[in-house]
Design brief:
This protein is of the alpha/beta class. The chain has helices at residues 8-23, 28-50, 54-61, 69-76, 118-123, 131-146, 164-168, 171-184, 199-203, 224-231, 238-245, 249-254, 273-291, 297-306; strands at 78-82, 95-102, 105-112, 151-157, 189-198, 210-214, 218-220, 260-262. The chain has 14 helices and eight strands.
Length: 312
């Protein structure tokens, strides 16, 4: 497992526990010492993760071993049929799209996929979509609207790809049209931020009736490094920028920008895939049921975003 800087004391204890287990031959004193260290490790883990700073939450949200969009799709969506291409330029593997069944209900799915290893990350462009990715999303929304399918989106991106080719092919327009299409969508949209929710690249798929966030995920207008480069002229002040951005799930829930914080297992989503995916599935089900009781889904969605930042 990849160890984050603030987790080092936990893994130093773990190393001692593993060493004792290797030499343990049934000696009661060693067994008791192992139990004592395990309890100490658990308490330390709980304390550290209950006091995470915004910058530490950024690190957890970016943890390479967190469940990715395809993990949720593979475990929550039955009979998933992937759909490719934007019918204009090509296919963008940073966005996984398709249709399938969620707990017996036909749904459309969009997910920003970062990849799990170096080869996979390069293949998926580290989860940073090109314009054709957002045009593919637009196409899937058209299809879902035609067949009255609810839309589930999994958000996990540092932002839309900022390369010259992407800009030449109309990155800003593609994002704007994806947002516009989301606002016109006739059926429920449920968006779940599972890791990073970065800038317009995230909101292009997060204009939803209900926006849910995992406990240690982040959602912001710009990355802490980008913010620090602009405001402080020094990207090394990213931790200060993270504090100022109010990018944690707890901050965003307080500001009514998101609707629900989904609990993660102790120590982050990367420590227990099964628990995390189950929690996400249960919350999607709850909010899909809630959405069915909304009279005008388009109006509900529009008002939700018009109310952001409004002083009442």
């Amino acid at each position: 497992m990849i160890i984050l800087d603030f987790e080092k004391p936990i893994f130093e204890l773990d190393a001692k526990i593993q060493e004792l287990k290797k030499i343990n031959t049934g000696d009661l004193s060693i067994v008791e010492e192992i139990k004592r260290l395990e309890n100490k490790q658990k308490k330390m883990l709980k304390q550290i993760y209950s006091e995470l700073t915004p910058w530490q939450k950024v690190q957890v949200a970016r943890h390479p071993e967190r469940p990715k969009a395809e993990d949720y799709i593979n475990n929550l969506i039955d009979d998933f049929i992937p759909l490719s291409g934007d019918r204009v330029f090509g296919d963008d593997l940073a966005i996984t799209a398709g249709i399938g069944k969620f707990k017996g209900m036909s749904v459309a799915v969009l997910g920003q996929e970062k990849g799990k290893n170096t080869e996979d990350r390069i293949k998926h462009n580290f989860g940073m979509p090109h314009p054709e990715g957002y045009r593919k999303a637009y196409r899937i929304m058209d299809l879902a609207d035609k067949f009255k399918l609810p839309l589930i989106t999994f958000i996990d991106t540092a932002g839309a790809y900022p390369g010259i080719g992407a800009e030449e092919r109309g990155q800003a327009e593609a994002i704007a049209k994806s947002i516009e299409r989301s606002l016109q969508f006739q059926c429920p949209i449920i968006a779940i931020i599972i890791g990073e929710g970065g800038s317009g690249g995230a909101i292009a798929l997060a204009v939803a009736n209900y926006v849910l966030m995992l406990e240690n995920s982040i959602y912001s207008v710009i990355s802490p490094e980008g913010c620090a480069s602009i405001l402080y002229r020094n990207s090394e002040k990213a931790s200060e920028a993270a504090n100022a951005l109010k990018l944690t799930a707890q901050d965003l829930f307080k500001f009514n920008i998101i609707d629900k914080i989904i609990d993660e297992p102790l120590g982050g989503a990367h420590r227990d895939f099964e628990f995390t995916i189950k929690q996400v599935g249960e919350n999607i089900k709850t909010y899909l049921i809630n959405a069915q009781n909304i009279d005008n889904l388009k109006e509900h969605r529009c008002n939700k975003f018009l109310d952001v930042g409004r002083v009442k």
